[in-house]
Amino acid sequence: MHLLAIIAPGGSSSGARCKLARGEELGNDKVTMTRAPNMPPPIEEMWPAVCLVRPQMGENIGAVARVMLNFGLTQLRLVAPRDRWPNPKAQAVAVGADRVLDQARVEWRLEDAAADATLVVAATARPRGMEKPVWGPREAARNLKAAIASGEKPIVVFGPESSGLETDEVARAEAILTLPVNPGFASLNLAQAVGIFGFAFAETRQEESAPAWFHGGDSPPATHEELENMFLHLEEELERGRFYHPPDKAALMKRNLRAILLRARLTQQETQTLRGVIKALTIGRGGRKKDDA
After folding, report:
1. Which residue of 5, 71, 119, 214 shows the fewest CB atoms closer than 10 Å?
2. To which H or E segment does residue 284 belong?
3. What pLDDT is recorded for position 291?
């Protein structure tokens, strides 16, 4: 078994604490999300797993479960949690990610939590004086994605909020993940640290920075014939409004206007809308005045 250790920097739990009341209220509600018609099915990946070693607060565990499911990760492992488990405070803060908590695996030793792993990944803000590769979040995510594609089972290990993993726990790892935090204030909340890694891993699923379902629309691109008809309509009305002045600049002004609109890559619906705008501005509801006919 190959181990790669990720040490979580020590972090304050105040973020989870101050939102607890709201989380408990939301925890009783059914959480739903409006889905666009072209959105793919929900993403739920078993690997990489996330392992929290000696987590100290149920609220932080719940926040970790929530951010894991935000980025499509579902396998949570806990090593010697300080408070009793299951923990109602974790359920309250998870807000809809209950299934991540319900299937969480609890062990007393890191060795047992990582027993079935072929690669364990972790992050630290502190150098440990060990000869190990050091990865940033995106590099770690790419390496783990490649490992999963080749059949490996990676785990990302985070230490307790107050101190991170112990040096002996880091020594079990093959590499270290570090986050680009402010060296003058490097302490992250546990869920924040997991969220940064989760975001980096989610980026590996898509070629572009925005999800695919945000691209494109229901209306196809306008054809050149449709664009030409719109241009002629616009130019005709601008002629009526004596826009082209001086007259010898008319050809240049028409080319410039066309260039502006062509850069927009208009759809058929947008082209029709613009023609309606031109008509409304020049004719209006009462029809064109006789003097302007």
Report:
1. 214
2. none
3. 56
